[in-house]
Amino acid sequence: MSPVITLLTDFGLRDAYVGAMKGVILGINPKARIVDLTHEIEPQNVKQAAYLLKTAYHYFPAGSVHVAVVDPGVGTERRPIAARLGQWTFVAPDNGLLTYAIQREDGPRVVEIVNPRYMLPGVSGTFHGRDIFAPAAARLSLGAPLSDLGPEVPDPVLLPPPPQPAGDVYPGSVIHVDRFGNCITDIEEAPFRRWATQAVTMEAGGRTIRGLAAAYGEAAPGEAVALFGSSGHLEMAVTMGSAQLVLGLHIGSAVLLRRGQG
Length: 262
What we know:
This protein has a 7-stranded antiparallel β-sheet with strand order 10-9-13-7-8-12-11. It folds into 2 domains: 4-148, Rossmann fold (3-Layer(aba) Sandwich); 169-259, Bacterial fluorinating enzyme like (Elongation Factor Tu (Ef-tu), domain 3, Beta Barrel). The chain has helices spanning 17-28, 46-56, 99-104, 128-141, 189-195, 243-247, and strands spanning 4-9, 33-38, 65-69, 80-85, 88-93, 109-112, 169-177, 183-188, 200-204, 207-210, 224-228, 233-238, 254-259. It is of the alpha+beta class. It is elongated, with a radius of gyration of 20 Å.
């Protein structure tokens, strides 16, 4: 079966950046099946990229190669890395983008990409997606050993952990706004369930949302709800509407849970 290579970037589709990466991959491995996860990451937003990668990578067949390029440090001393995490291989800048995948999979193995045989000649200081990550991913999809790329990295960069609850208060923030205007936070279900021993209210955008819904349609049209979505993260939605617009939220907006306020 032809190998799968996925792409996740903040490049958008207006420019030819994504097309150039695909051209490099297909020039090395013409049989590769390339899947676009998304190219609409907010520019330079590594945390959002890490979250979206987390929601999708494990649904792909074993052996798939995931290329994730959101790289505000391109051309600096930040390391280009490749990683074997569970049944999948990843290629990305070492800036925290692989945090959730590294934390999710047992026995992660990470190397720095330094071998020039896995890069294009004359690497640009501004486009490592084309010149380093795409060719490395293509070679890996053909079965190249991870060890050929470079030395082991024992200390890959990880994003800071999300805020933890303090007593009856649980702070969080919006890390992604989807196409429907649903505002997804960095509060995950497992720690929330351990903390939420009483009724809970959520404060966001100057409004208070009481309790949790199980589905978007539980509320009346135009009503704001809080619920755990398919990614296992707490989110705010407006039935038949946009929480982003109604609540005035954006990526980085603070949210606050309070226990015992039902």
